[in-house]
Specification:
Layout lengths: L13 H14 L12 E13 L2 E13 L2 E11 L2 E10 L7 E12 H8 L10 E11 L8 E8 L2 E4 L3 H13 L1 H4 L12 E4 L1 E9 L2 E10 L3 E10 L4 E10 L9 E2 L4 E2 L5 E9 L4 E5 L6 H8 L23
Antiparallel strand pairs: 1-2, 2-3, 3-4, 4-5, 5-6, 6-7, 7-10, 8-9, 10-11, 11-12, 12-13, 13-16, 14-15, 16-17
C-alpha cells in the first residue's frame, strides 16, 4: 500500500478542489495586458496615394480613438477612382476571445472590380461595375457568423460577375439548374467563357438577423432575363430558403418550342416562379404554381422588374439593424 495523502485543509477531497482550480485557470479567457487596459490613444494618418494587389488608390485616411480597452471610434476612408469607400467601426477589446463590434459602411460610386481585387487574397476580380450602398453590421467575434445583425442596401452595375466567390458560385449553380441559357434567348454568358455573367444592374436590400440574411429583395437584370428573389440565406449552415421569379427579356428560343422543364410551350412563357432550397452547394430548384404561393410572396415577386440601379427604396430591419436609405 502506498503512502496516504492528506487532503487540503478545509476541503473534503482536496485533489478535486485542486483539479477544479487548475481547470478554472486553464479556461480563463485571454484578456488585454494590464497596460493596454489603462492607456488611451488617439491616432490619425493620411496617405495621398498607394497601390495594393496591383490596384491604385488615393487619399487614404485613417483615424482611431482608443480608450482603456475600447475602440470608441475607428474610421477608414479611401478614394477608388471616381468613387469613395468609408467605414466606421467600434469594438470592445477587453476580452480578446469575444470582441463585440459594430461596423457602418458607405460606398459611393466605387469600382467593384477594384474593390473585389484588393480584398481578394488571390488578387483577382470577383465582379465589375459601379457599386453604391450603405450597410450596418453588429456582432461578436466569438460566434461569427451567427451573431451578425444589421442591414445592407447595395446597387451595382452594369458589369460582369465572375464565378470565383461563394455567392457567385451559388448563383451560377441555380442558373445552371433551371437551364436558362437553353430556355431564354439572348447573350446570357460572355462569348469567351461560361464562368462570366454580364449584367445590367443588381440590387440587394437585406436584413441580417442572427446570421441569417433576409432578402427583401435581391434583383438581377442581365441581357437575357430579369430575376427577383426573396427569402433567407443562413450563413451558419449555408442553407437556402428562397422564392424567386424570372422574366425573359427576349423571345424564347425557337429551337426549344416545347420546354420539358415547365411542361408548356415556350411561346406562352412570360414569368417563371421558382423555389430554391437546401444546401447552397447543391440547391434544389423547383418550379412553382403562382396561385399556390403565399399572397405576400406572390405580390413581391409579381412587381415589374427592371430599373434596379440607383434605387432609392427604403429598408427597415427593426431590431436587426437601423433603417437604411
Amino acid at each position: 500500500r502506498g503512502p496516504r495523502v492528506k487532503p487540503l485543509e478545509g476541503e473534503a477531497g482536496g485533489t478535486a478542489a485542486a483539479a477544479e482550480k487548475q481547470t478554472t485557470t486553464e479556461l480563463k479567457p485571454r484578456q488585454l495586458p494590464s497596460l493596454a487596459r489603462q492607456v488611451s490613444v488617439s491616432l490619425g494618418a493620411r496617405l495621398e496615394e498607394g497601390r495594393w494587389q496591383g490596384r491604385d488608390f488615393s487619399d487614404l485616411v485613417f483615424a482611431l480613438e482608443y480608450r482603456k480597452g475600447h475602440i470608441e471610434h475607428g474610421e477608414v476612408a479611401v478614394d477608388l477612382g471616381i468613387g469613395k469607400v468609408r467605414a466606421r467601426a467600434s469594438a470592445d477589446l477587453l476580452d480578446v476571445e469575444a470582441i463585440p463590434f459594430s461596423l457602418d459602411l458607405n460606398v459611393d460610386r466605387a469600382d467593384l472590380d477594384q474593390i473585389t481585387t484588393m480584398l481578394n487574397k488571390k488578387g483577382t476580380s470577383l465582379a465589375s461595375g459601379e457599386l453604391n450602398g450603405q450597410g450596418s453590421l453588429r456582432g461578436n467575434s466569438a460566434s461569427l457568423p451567427g451573431s451578425l445583425n444589421g442591414s445592407l442596401t447595395l446597387t451595382a452595375g452594369p458589369g460582369e460577375i465572375h464565378d470565383r466567390s461563394f455567392a457567385a458560385q451559388s448563383l451560377f449553380r441555380i442558373i445552371s439548374l433551371i437551364n436558362l441559357q437553353g430556355i431564354i434567348s439572348g447573350d446570357l454568358w460572355t462569348s469567351s467563357s461560361r464562368d462570366v455573367l454580364p449584367y445590367y444592374g443588381a440590387l440587394m436590400l437585406a436584413c441580417i438577423d442572427s446570421g441569417t440574411v433576409r432578402l427583401q429583395p435581391f434583383e438581377l437584370r442581365t441581357p437575357a432575363f430579369s430575376g427577383r428573389a426573396v427569402g433567407d440565406i443562413d450563413l451558419t449552415s449555408a442553407q437556402l430558403d428562397i422564392d424567386a421569379a424570372t422574366t425573359s427579356l427576349g423571345a424564347v428560343d425557337t429551337t426549344l418550342s416545347f420546354l420539358p422543364l415547365l411542361g408548356r410551350y415556350g411561346s406562352d412563357l412570360t414569368r417563371v416562379y421558382l423555389r430554391v432550397s437546401g444546401d447552397s452547394e447543391k440547391p434544389v430548384v423547383e418550379v412553382q404554381v403562382p396561385k399556390l404561393l403565399p399572397r405576400t410572396i406572390h405580390d413581391q415577386l409579381a412587381q415589374p422588374m427592371g430599373a434596379v440601379v440607383h434605387s432609392h427604396r427604403t429598408i427597415d430591419c427593426g431590431d436587426a439593424g437601423d433603417a437604411m436609405r
